[in-house]
Amino acid sequence: MNLVTVSGPPSTGKTAVILKTIESYKKQNVNVGVIKFDCLYTDDDILYEKAGITVRKGLSGGLCPDHYFVSNIEEAFEWGQKEGFDVLISESAGLCNRCSPYIKDVKAICVIDNLSGINTPKKIGPMLKSADIVVITKGDIVSQAEREVFASRVHTVNPGATVMHVNGLTGQGSFELSTLLYDRSLDTETLKGKELRFSMPSALCSYCLGEKRIGEQYQMGNVRKINLEES
Predict the structure, then answer these.
(1) What is the C-alpha to C-alpha distance for residues 63 and 82, in angstroms, rounded to an integer?
(2) Could you give the angle at the alpha carbon of 178 between the alpha carbons of 175 and 184, nearest 5°?
(3) Which of 75, 86, 87, 229 has its CA 20 to 30 A from that of 27?
(4) What own/partner pairs with CB < 8 Å and gap ≥ 24 does 208-211 have?
(5) Which residues make Cβ contacts (< 8 Å) with residue 95, sequence separation at least 6?
(6) pLDDT above 80: residue 94
(7) Structural domain of residue 131, as residue ranges?
(8) Domain CobW/HypB/UreG nucleotide-binding, which positions (predicted)?
(9) For residue 222, is it within any domain?
(10) Number of domains in the chain
(11) What does the mean pLDDT of the chain come to?
(12) How buried is residue 70: exposed, middle or buried, by Cβ count under 10 Å (0-12/13-18/19+)?
């Protein structure tokens, strides 16, 4: 089974891109399932079910969603194998822009949209920098010049990635994306022992453990201060 990890900031159109890409796979008789990771709420699973796609979802609640992802992806992968999928797509939102749910030797896709701001590619961090493919959406509501400048900024941040435009409404570009994601010769047998491409943030402090009071005396563990004397 191929495992594909798709991530990106909220509301960039990840689910729409995945749905259109799976339409292409259905025409090729490729069996695809989806595991959706989110933080507090998602109804994207309903969209997948309406499209006839087998889906499971997990909500991290009070935990960091990317830590939650890596703690559960092995079981999700085993579920996909039992279901007999050819491809399992993992969809997750990188909520802090510091994490990356990508795994070495597993295809990694970052979805980002043209409306997020010209400097957004520099803000997203490893989720964009370490992706194999960067999908840019919402290109139909900006000018050609804006599309080209935005794509150039993405290329500057991740020069090794394949950058492509996909329209989540019409599906334009989704077939081309599907040809880049599935390769039967790259089936993964197990995730046991594999490594993430980027380390998770180190953030074990008193606030991680439930502290609510503000004050230096309550700040223990991994704490980092701003140098306000810097110009």
Answers:
(1) 28
(2) 140
(3) 75
(4) none
(5) 10, 39, 65, 66
(6) no
(7) 2-203
(8) 4-164
(9) no
(10) 1
(11) 91
(12) middle
Counts for the chain of helices (H) and strands (E), in that order: 7, 7
Tokens of residue 211, six digits: 């502290």
**H helix runs in the chain, sequence order:** 14-27, 44-50, 65-83, 120-123, 126-129, 144-157, 174-181
CATH code: domain of residue 169: 3.40.50.300
The amino acid that residue 172 corresponds to is Q
Asked if residue 225 is part of any domain, the answer here is no
* Cα 13 from chain centroid (whole Å): 11
List the one residue out of 124, 125, 119 whose CA is nearest residue 152: 119
Distance CA 113, CA 41 (A): 21
- Per residue in 52-77, pLDDT tens? 999 999 998 878 778 888 899 999 99
Task: Give the Cα separation of 192 and 147 in Å (integer).
Answer: 40
As given in the structure block, the two tokens for residue 161 are: 């990635």
Token pair 């964009």 is found at: 128
How many other C-beta atoms lie within 10 A of the C-beta of residue 86? 17
Q: Is the pLDDT of residue 135 over 80?
A: yes
